[in-house]
Amino acid sequence: MKIPKKKSVFEQWLQYLGLPLALICFAAFYTMSTPEGLTVQGQISLAVFAMAFILWVSEALPTYTTALLSLVILALTGAWTEKNILGVFGYDVIWLMLAAFIITSGMEKSGVARRMALWMVTRFGKTAAATLMVLMITNFIIAFVVPSTTARAALMLPICLLVAQTYGAKPGESNFGRIMMIQEVHANNISTTGILTATAPQILAIGLIKDLTGQNVTWMDWLAASMPIAVGTMLISFLLGFILFPPEVKTPQGKGVEELKEQLSSMGPLSGVEWRAIIIFALTVFLWATGPWHVAMFGVNISLVMVAILAGTALFLPGIGFLTWKETSIPWDLMLFSCGAYAVGLAFEKSGAASWAMNWIFSGMDINSMPFWMAFAIVMAVATFSHIVFSSKVVRTVILIPTVVGLAKAAGINPFALALPAAFTIADSITLPPNCKPNLIFYSTGYFTVLNQLTYGILVLLGKVALMTLASVTWFKILGIC
């Protein structure tokens, strides 16, 4: 019988007060006078966003209940149209999550995921710390060849789930599982910040920087400047995880490494089913990695989501696949949460409320009289945490870079010195599940709560801001950025 994890006194108070606080917050934003520059629709979206945020963090209601409630309130208050709200269920992220769990089920049934997990643990992961470090390094390596955070999340998910089983980690109970899944979110996003081509919005950012400042940024310029920050940030994440959530196991639970080696050996040579799973998985990774060249190779572009759906379909095909629908494990409650969370975030963004909040924060800054390092730290903090109000990295980039350039010019600061480092924060979306698709994928495993991710993410990003501020007077100066 599963024993529910005992909540701390703080978590219990959060749960008790969450609902009344959420309702008070909603009422306050909903009934206040509409601020200048904000539309009524944006004001209502802000009220719904704040209410949902409090309910998700406090867990006063189940996350899926809050999601469904938010969908209804968005429609009834006119914050977003019913057509757009219900249309979220057809968004690519929802279908990608569905396909990712089908692929995961296939990898598990075939035995390939178990073989990979056992090999990783017996070869490199003799301790919990070593296993976590290997998973993080793996994420950084594949970021060079798979230019999509979402594809990498779908790729790593089955491996992480099997590693969790190897360590006896149960969802919602195990600190090892909690650290591993949240650190995968961190590694996925932070590794992206170190590689210019790891996500399209970063390429958009350097285009804007060139147009607005006249400064050109090459692939190597970005790598040299941002990768050391990315590596340092992941080291902070690695160490902080052991402080926040001390693992209850230091080695594979109840099974020595030698016993695990015996299990790996007992699996024998690869079976026919495993070979089929490997071929499907390898073709999926190949198509994800070669996305920019699909038209030249095939005459047609195959999107990330279509590749995932194609892989999931192959697993069901007679003679090729080996999976039945009843054998798939899809967390439908968390899928509902994803839909609701995405709708709330999109309504907040598309209503103009997110842009208004960003401009309001920057307009209140008087950085003219500050030392450069202090102005730099404040701008980087706002830039990195702006992902909380923007669900789209593209929209965030389009708003963030011109705003930072304008702010720098008004303060008499070299705009390049603020704009390029601000671009290094575009993929810092690690504090809440709806911030980006990989977050939703790993949150759906049930290993961590919204509060777990929020606390861990804020502390890691504060560490990153500190690293970048230090770099602004050292490494960035050497590179000629600041």
What does this structure look like?
With 482 residues, the chain is mostly helical. Helix content is 70%, strand content 0%. It is built from 23 helices and no strands. Helix 1 (9-31) runs antiparallel to helix 2 (40-58) and helix 9 (175-193) runs antiparallel to helix 21 (437-443). The chain is globular and about 70 Å long.
Task: Flag low-confidence runs.
Answer: none
Helix/strand structural class? mainly alpha
> β content, as a range?
under 5%
The general outline is globular
**Average pLDDT for all residues:** 87
Highlighted features:
mainly alpha; 70% helix
Secondary structure elements and pairings:
Blueprint: H1 9-31, H2 40-58, H3 63-77, H4 82-87, H5 92-110, H6 112-123, H7 128-142, H8 149-166, H9 175-193, H10 200-213, H11 219-244, H12 257-266, H13 272-289, H14 294-298, H15 304-316, H16 332-350, H17 353-363, H18 372-385, H19 393-411, H20 415-423, H21 437-443, H22 450-472, H23 475-479
Helix pairs in contact: 1-2, 2-3, 2-16, 3-16, 5-8, 5-13, 5-15, 6-8, 6-12, 7-9, 8-9, 8-21, 9-11, 9-21, 10-19, 10-20, 11-22, 13-15, 17-19, 18-20, 18-22, 19-20
